[in-house]
Write the structure tokens for this entry.
Amino acid sequence: MPILARFSLGRRRIMVILIAVFALSPCIIVQAQDSAPRLARFSESDAGITLDGRLDEDIWQRVPAIDGMRVIQPDTLAASTLRTDTHIFYTERGVYVGVMNHQDPDTLVARMTSRDTRLERDGFVINIDPSGEGLYGYMMRVNLGGSKTDATILPERQINVQWDGSWDAETSPVDGGWVAEFFIPWTMMALPNVPGETRRIGIYTERQVGHLNETWSFPPLPSTVNEFISAFHKMEIDAIEPSAQLTWYPYLSATHDGIRDESELRTGLEVFWRPTTNTQFSATLNPDFGNVESDDIDVNLTAFETFFPEKRAFFLEGQDVFNTSPRNQSARGPGGPTTLLNTRRIGSAALFDVPSGVNTIATDVSQPTDLLGAAKFTGQNGNWRYGTLLASEDDSEIRGVALDGTRVKVQAEGRDFGVGRLLYEDTTGGGRRSIGWMGTSVSHSNVDAVVNGVDMHYFSADARWVFDGQAVASDVNGVSGQGAFADIIFQPIRGRQHRVAAGYHDDTLDLNTLGFLTRNDLMHLDYNYTRNESNIEGLRSRSTSIFNFNQWNSNGDFVRQGIFAARNYTFLNNHSLMASARYYHRRVDDRLGRGSGDYYVPGRWQFVFGWDTDPSQKLVYNFNLDANSEDLGERNTTTRAGVTYRPVDNFSLLAQVAYTDREGLLVYRGNGRYTSYEATQWSPELTLNYFINARQQIRFGMQWTGLKAFENKFLQVNPNRIEELREVAKPNATSDNFSISRMTFQARYRWEIAPLSDLFVVYTRGGNLPGNTFDDYTGLLQEAWTEPVVDTLVIKLRYRLGS
């Protein structure tokens, strides 16, 4: 494995990172394995499949059916009560799956949703592990009605639903149930080189039965066990050598900005080339990375950054090799994900240096940066996997106004990004062991950042122990930092799990030039116990969780410490109840004051209660109550309620609202001074979906958050020693009262012309009122609508061409 290296990227030159992996000897020694059943093969012409959601071709009668499903949700592992006849075969082009889901037609639940939406309904899943060794896989799900979900899978159950593949599927209700019919092309998957004439793949099937609120699978692999991808049903196929894949995604987009009364026409190209079954090169020229889906509104008054997931297709394709830890895509780390690569940094707001006395528009400064281009190369050779990612931003320019009224051009230089990844994985003898390296680089006239990491993973052959760990080092503008973290999971029996998480991040570690880390100067040692139970009298299932967390800084001061206990009940009528009690020990806040001094936060309690009705019904209600305390001990209560109405399969209306009443909202005002506020906040959300058919959707969505805060107390930190904030007299006559009114509205039409080929027509309107605007909440909402800061209409066509 290469030693930690420093990347250096030249400005506006061709950037190249070479990852050289010497060819492994063809005489690789592997443990002998028992023979596996063979998957039926036919020629494409002999199969003659028309993908229409009906199993009326003769070929389906010649392929034996697979069933054997058991109930995994709840995890009773009881035999399924209905037959599921799954027929699978393959051709030189790909894998075909035909499924007859036997069921009373009166109980069918077919609901159309956007892609990758989780919902209780009738659906079928086929998972494929092309490595045959549990190293990586692909999940494809189609629901009755045609709505799809897909994802990539990493050991053992790291599922990334942001990925979209070029597979296709159709469904139809029939006498005695419903049918699902899939086509999954080989060119969509990375196929490792294997010696000999046969290769082994893993297959997993899953069926969701909406009216029963149950999930069945074969093989039976509930979430209450550690095993997943490594335990897929193994099947042998002939050594497939698909033709080299070359796929083109030209796009054309037209944008009209109603605020500036400007229009822009853009065109560009994305290219995906798979020269061999186990390598892929992708590049984008003049990319248009404008999102056709808005981020959720976030009102963040803390000292910590909010993490937003990636939504751009180019960066999501082939990204899994750059996943170095389960903490990359979840909140398992303190405060959120911990990752060396957060691709939302690429093309984010430019690094403007606005001269003193020049006024600019906030939305201009924060707008995304255009990219000149990006390229990615991923591959596999034996036990090794590798990848590189390169991207270069264009220079940015906005307009400012000087104090004398003259217009000023404010410019920002673009950044160059580079990422390298190398991973070794071994599954001989059962289980999994792997070690990897990843390095990132950001080059800019004001930023010279290099981050390196080594990650290690272990999964025991008996599936009881899981270990994931990573050591990281950063060098940003000559300042070095280090850190390490690890997660250990022990599962003695099904349904019971112990997890220990530990980490160390010194006070100079900086991952946020290209990655994401909520905070440095942190050590933590956390313990989590979960227990899941099924077949309980009067209940469908019950889960219990106990979580103890201990986080402290380099001074030895606890910055977060406490214990949580939670119970979740699912009743026989599919209603569910959640109750949680949480106690936070006294801690030190060393972040909100931005270095002006630390102070003690007294201990406090929090109680959370939630109720949800049967999600399979046409009318669904939910209610949540969060009774918390502010940092100074005052009451902080949030009440949430929502209703979802689905009278027919192709229409849904979601309405929910949250109301927060705070008696001690603490905001830092500078120079060690804080103001405590009495504040109220309304956050309604309304979403309407109408599907012309499974491939054409009209969606209206609106989110708004309105907050009004009135000064209550004035406090000062003691900069010389740690103590609780002390109340002081109002320091000046200026009012600290403020308001927030942020609104996002989006109307979107999407037509999926073909797999991964879409036409979007999107209108987006957003408002963000000045903080000194006060009105009643109805007035704040009206003003946020009538005084927008974003008003755009986008028409975008992206079409897939090639193999």
Summary: Residues 1-33 have pLDDT under 50 and may be disordered. The chain is about 5% helix and 55% strand. The domain at 40-242 is CATH 2.60.40.1190 (Immunoglobulin-like). The first helix runs from residue 44 to 47.
